[in-house]
Structure formats: C-alpha cells, structure tokens
Prior knowledge:
Oligomer: single chain
Amino acid sequence: MNRTGLVSKFAETVGIEKASAIVDDAIADLGISDETEIDDTDAQDICDIIQHNNEGYIALVASELRVQLAAQERFDALLGNIPNPAVVVGFEQREPYVKSINEAFADSFGYDQTDAVGAELRTLLAPPGADSEVIRTDWWEQTGQSEQEVRRMTASGEVRTYLFRSTVVTRDSSQLEGYGIYTDITDRKRREQQLKHQNERLDEFVSIVSHDLRNPLNVASGRTQLLLDDIEDVAVREGLQEVAAAHERMARILDDTLTLARQGRVVGETASVSIETVAADAWQQVETEDATLSIETEATVEADAERLQQLFENLYRNAIEHAGAECSVVVSVPEGHEQSGFSIADDGPGIPPDDRELVFEHGYSTNADGTGFGLSIVQSIVEAHGWSVAVSESEMGGARFDIRW
C-alpha cells in the first residue's frame, strides 16, 4: 500500500486534509523521503507511528490497518512460494480481473505483474480459437471451492492441461475476491491416455486368447482323446499321447497368460485377511503329493483375499516343481524386522544368486515343462498391492520368497 492508499484509508473517517497530515507526519518521523516508494513493511511502520501519536478512532483505524497489512504481507509471501501458477482476482460483473500473480504464473504464462495486474484474466490465458468465456465461468461453476480440468495457453504458445482449483470469498465492503491455482497435469493425462490404450489392447489380447485360441485347442484336444480311445496301435498311441501332452501344456500356458494379464490390474476391494487361513486354503488347491506345509503365523494382512490365495498357490507349485514331491514348505512372518510381511520357504535346491532377479521375468523357467509365468504372476499380484518381493536362501537351504510392505 502506497501513500495514496494510506491517506484514503484514514480519509474515510477524518477527511482528506487531516488524513494527509497524519500520514505525512508519520512518514517524516520515520525519515522516509517523498521520493521513496513505500512498501508494505513501511506502511505497517507508518501505522505504528500514527497509532502511537493519536488517540481514539484514528488510533483504532491505524491498529486495524496494520493488522490487515501484516496479513496481506504473509499472504503475499505464501503466494510467492507456491510452486504452481497462482492468481488473485477481483470481480466486476462476475468478470475476473487480475489483482496479483506469483512468479510461477509469470514463468508459465509469460506475464509479469506489470502486464497482468488489472487485465481481464481471459485475455491472458485463452487458447487460440477457444471461447474465452470459459475462463470467466471457471470461477462460477460451483459455489465456494471448485476443482476442474482446464486447457490454457502457456508462454511458449503450447496449450496444456491444468487442474484448476479456485475459491471465491467475500472481503471488505462485500467485495468478492478469488484465489486460483493451476497445477500442470498434461504429462499425467498423457500417461493416463497411454494406459487406457494399453488396457484396451490388453482386453483385446485376453479376448483373443480366451476365445480364438482356446476354442480350437479344445477341439484338437477332444479329437485327440477320441482317437486315443479307439487306436490300439502302440506306436500311434505313443504319438497321440505326446500330442495330448502338448495340448495340456498349451492349455497351461493359456491359463497362466490370462491370469498374468488380469493380475496386472489394480487390486479391487481389500479386507483384513488371515495369512494362516489363506495359506491353508491355497494348499488345498495345489497337487501337493507328499509335500508338507507348516504355517508359523497368526498374522493378518490388508489384501484382496482371492488374489493373495493365487500368490500362495503359485509359490507352492514353484516349490514342488523345483524342490520335489516330498518337499517341506514353511509360511512365516519376519521377527524384529523393520518392514511387515511374510515369507514362503522350501527345502529344495534353492535359486542361484545370479538367477534370483531373472525368475520373475515373463517366460523364464528352468523346468522344460514349466510355462515360466508362475513367478511373474506372483510379482504382478505383489505390485498390485503395493508390496515388494525378493528371493533369498531359506534356513533349510532352499528358496525363500519374502513379501514385504
């Protein structure tokens, strides 16, 4: 607030002549020359002098004005430190006029305070060919606070997408004032669009696999089985059995591929799940032969129970596949560990350190009959929950998979 603003404030109560005199006296007391520009800090000091040198209503006005100036100074500091473009507007017939902008606004849209203050906001931000009326209505789409996506032209001439948050408040004398912040979400929107296209392609892929490939495979498998029932020639039967085994392997690959595609999505509704219960249920769904399971925890976890069970099933199959039909599997939780989680360990040959990162890659398998998707599915389920998974050596000398969060 400059000298003119200070005089006008006091003139509301004591008249222009007296207001000019008390402001000039305070300026003289502070040793401020007539040529010096008065900033907000100087204005606060002037109000202090006026309050000290006067009584009654003049002192009260000086005190209230100083409080307002101090609040405005704090607000200006806050505005200046906001990393996103921010603007303060006043309204005339609901038309937003710029009262102040921060440095980020100037950098993004190419206007400094001198160019921006007093201008209609729509003249500064409207993209070429766009209806500038939308910038006016941005502030009135909702009462109170508003949040919406908008497209605005930057200093470089590029039109980018912003999340515009605004609020309109009533200031002194029933004047409306608006505060708006523009958060650039252009890159995020592009990523969302890319993800949408990827998911559409994934859905198309799943459809092809589940229908266009599975149906003819079922036909081929069924015809092979019919031939096996009728053919007595030993050599022909051996050949047909190899064909049937190949069909079964193809069916497993299709199942794992579909599971992997679906497990890559974000988890649905989660709940507090007993690790012991899910681990035991998963064991019942796996051909465990003579393997044994030991569950050494009663802990719970916030998870999608169905997908967590799929994780356990795949790790059990992996253990039996590599550690043998009589292997031992142990489910436990870490003790004295900074992170929460659980582990699945076996007493098999383990996984060499150089291979421990490779085992999660799609299609990687050391077993000729394996599909190479089991552990990839495990990793997808883990990541969908926001967890992590790592491989190490178990206390029994086999492999241990540590799931942490």
